[in-house]
Structures are given as C-alpha cells and as structure tokens.
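ugh finaly. both done.
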Amino acid sequence: MLTVGDGNRQSRKEDSHLLHFVSEGMFVVSLDAQRTGNSKEKLGGHAGLLKGYSVLLAKAPLLKMETLGIRSEDVQTTTTNTPVGIFLVVYYISNYVFRFLCQILGRFNRARAAQLTLPHFISQTPLFMPVGTKGAIKGLTTSQLEEIGCQIILGNTYHLELQPTSELIDELGGLHKFMNWPRALLTDSGGFQMVSLLHLADITENGVTFQSPVDGKPMLLTPEESIQIQNRIGADIIMALDDVVRTTITGPRIEEAMYRTLRWIDRCIAAHKRPNEQNLFGIVQGGLDPVLRDICVKGLVERNLPGYAIGGLSGGEDKDSFWRVVAQCTAALPEDKPRYVMGVGYPLDIVVCSALGADMYDCVYPTRTARFGSALVPEGILKLTHRAMADDTRPVDTTCGCMVCKTYTRAYIHCLVTKDAMGSQLLSYHNLYYMLKLSRDLHSSIIEGRLPEYVCLFLCLDFAFYLLSVLFHWFVCGFLQKMFPKGDVPEWVCNAMEVAGIDISSCCAPFSSSQD
C-alpha cells in the first residue's frame, strides 16, 4: 500500500517520487508495478510516467473512479493533506492498467487542445506521430526521438507480423521493451496495405489475403487476426481493421467498403482481449460521399469506442474535398474522444485540420523528404541538394532550436546528402523536430486563445517569403520551393478557416482557387 505525506515528509522511496509530483501540481494514480515489468523498489522514469504510475495534472477536474472505468473493488484509496490548492488522491490498483482518458484543456471555436492519458505516456494534442513501420524511425534512435519531444510512435501491424513476428515481440516483452521506447505506441491495423499493396491483396468479407513481399507466401489478415497481433505487440492505441479504398474511386465499391468497415468493427471489438490496457479506435470510411461518411460516423459512435480515426484520405483527392470530409467528421464525432486524421503530414494540412477540430496525425513525409535531401522550414521546403547550398554557412533554419540547426551548416549537410547517409539522418532529425514543434505551437496557441494570430503568422510567412523570393529568384537559382508558388493563400484554406471560425483576411488575401 502506498501512502503520501503532507508535502514535507519523504520517509519512503515511493513517497519521494509521489511528493515530487505533488509539488509540481499533479495527482498520481498508482498502478500495480508488476504490470509494467518493474518492481516498486526500482521506480524511476520520465516526464508523464513513473514506471508503475500514471500522472495527471492537478489542475484537471478531480476524476471519479467511474470516469476512469475503475471498479471500486479494485481500488484502495488514500487521501492526505498536501500543499495548498492541491488535493491528492492515490489509487492503488491491483492488476489494473490505467485506461485511456481524453481531457480537453482549451478550445478556440472548433479547435481543441487536449491531454491524452495512455498507459505509457501522457500526450498533448494536437500531436504528430512519426511512422516507425517496422518498430524504428529510419536513421534515428529512440533516445533522439525522446530528445525532440516525440510522444507517440506509429508501427504497422502487417510489417511487424511479417518480421520479426508478433509472437517474438510478445515473447521479448512487447514492442515497447523490444524497441526500448518508454512512451506511447500506436499500431495501424494493416488495412492501409490494401491500397499500398493492392497488387498483392485479395479482399473478401472474411478479411484480406496478402502475398508476402518477403517470401511470396499468402497471409490472411482477418479483423480477429489483426487485433490478436496488436494485442501481442502491446501498443497503447490499436486500430480496427477497415476496408480501405482510394478516395479517387467512385461507384459501389466505396459503399461496400464503408458497410464492411462497420461489420468488421464488431468483429474487432469481440476479438479484443486487452480493452483495459489497449485502446481500440474505429476508422471512419465512406470516400468523398457525405452520406456514407455520416452513416459510418454514426455507426462507430454507437459502439462507444475510446477514439476515432478519419481514414481514406490523403490518397489523391483534391484539397477542397479533403478538408470538407475532415470538417464533417470532426463535427459529428464525440467531444470527449480523440480524433485522428490518418496519413496527414503536410504542415499546412495539420494546421487546417487542427483548426477544424482534429487531434492526431501521422505520415512518413518528414522522414521521406529528408531522405531526398530536403528540409522543412517556415517558408516551405529547403532543398539541400542544390548546388547553391555548397558554400552556404547558415544553419538549415535560422529560427530552429534543434541540434542540427545549432551544430551544422547548410554547406556541410549539402556535402553529406550527396555522399553520405548521415545527411538524411540529420535532416530526419530536423524535420521531425519541426513537425513536433508545430504540434506544440498549435497546442499552446489554442490554450492561450491566440490561434488566429498563429495561423496568420504561419500563412503570412509563406506569402511574404514569396514576395522576397521574386526579387532574388535568379540569385538563389530557385532552390527554395514555396508553399504557395503564386503568392496566394489557396481558396480551400480560406474556406476551411471560415468554417473553423478563423479570420485570415487580415494577413493574407486569397488570389486564386488553387487546390494544390
């Protein structure tokens, strides 16, 4: 049984850890440490989590056990006097793992800044999740990812099952331990491979059969098998298997996929054996058809899932259709559950979707573009492969505080990206830092009520840079690609911001209806 002193007593090792969090204005939910593979005598950890503990901000409303899904028979409660203004409740929960909690910390019209309490980490939204398909972000260590503020890494069920297999991962203690990642994980269901590996896939009501790109053998992925694999992998958030089709497809296949997705979610729920440890998200499908999207949203909400994803986008549809689907879905999804727009990784798209009320995003874009020698900067894209970089002694981004920009010049990275893999590793570090800082800036701007100013600054940087670049175009050889090559804010952005209740007319007036 853990007890907590009055703010001054630190007579026990456990108390010293708990009192640290009391002094920081938090209350602590104590879990059975054995569930996390650590004895209580070996406590320690990192921001948001002591091994064996989950931590919540005390400024949050005091949560009832029922809100957390905790049964009274599982709990012993101790209350003590604590520093002024802080009421501390410690739950000692035998054989129980803290389940998902989404708490809205701030709003601006439709935009939300939330706190997600997961078994391994407390995350702040909006948030971007780097993609570690096979349990690793190419070129970066988990320590580096912690260093730049990564909160959740995405892994892929299909690829992890192919190699090294979920059975081996489970035997070795789960994916967190396998890849030495102490923070949160999300695993995709494998459904995206229906699109990316369509030439190797055969989709039926039973599931999807893939031809393994490793050995050519067939692999049947059913909703039940997808969940069983993800249960073995052990991610904090797991995704239901959905029937994925490209949004550019029209006709009855879209409707078929939407209704099949609803049928499959019930099979996923029935197969899920770790609901108190892993949070199952359903995925909204329906292509670009608002009627089908509405049916799917309502069907998923009726099942009262821990969270919801908006799927089937970023597959070649025009931007006007893209934002309208996001706006429709976020307006219909529950306020107290997270909303995850899958496959979104362009900075502008994340800003727009966050303004419309989305919370979570993932994409390979930051690391993939790094491998092509390009860096994300406030003005758009900086191509380090261009010969104009050869003698440029400036950092990649003069406004960036990452290790790469503090340490290396454009000239040095230019030399590396054309000859050495280290160049793409450094750019991957910078690009992910940029995306994670974008997420933090969105979070703070919503909390502080200055989202319109932040959005205008974000957009005006690109527009103002264009005006300057016209003057210097012939000198810089066009190596910097502008986000808005015609110097305008695309009409789709203006329309989306109007729906989001954010006035951008004071900073950048639109000049065309570009969809790019």
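ok and the 2nd:
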Amino acid sequence: EWPEEDYPPYANGPGYVVSSDIAEFVVSEFEKHSLR
C-alpha cells in the first residue's frame, strides 16, 4: 500500500502495450489454468 496521501504523477514499474487479441489469449489461457 502506498504510504503517502497522493500517488506520484508517473507509473513506477514496467508497463505493457498489447493488442486485444493477445489480451484475449492471455485471459483464456489464465481461465484454463494453462499459464505457468
């Protein structure tokens, strides 16, 4: 949990940009418990 009252104006950590078909694939594999 963030200790301050306000969040910083930037994202701290990695970010990913994926297409909707990749996102749908990841969700479907997660639901099938196929992800490692």
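summary for the 2nd one i guess: The CA atoms of residues 2 and 9 lie 13 Å apart.
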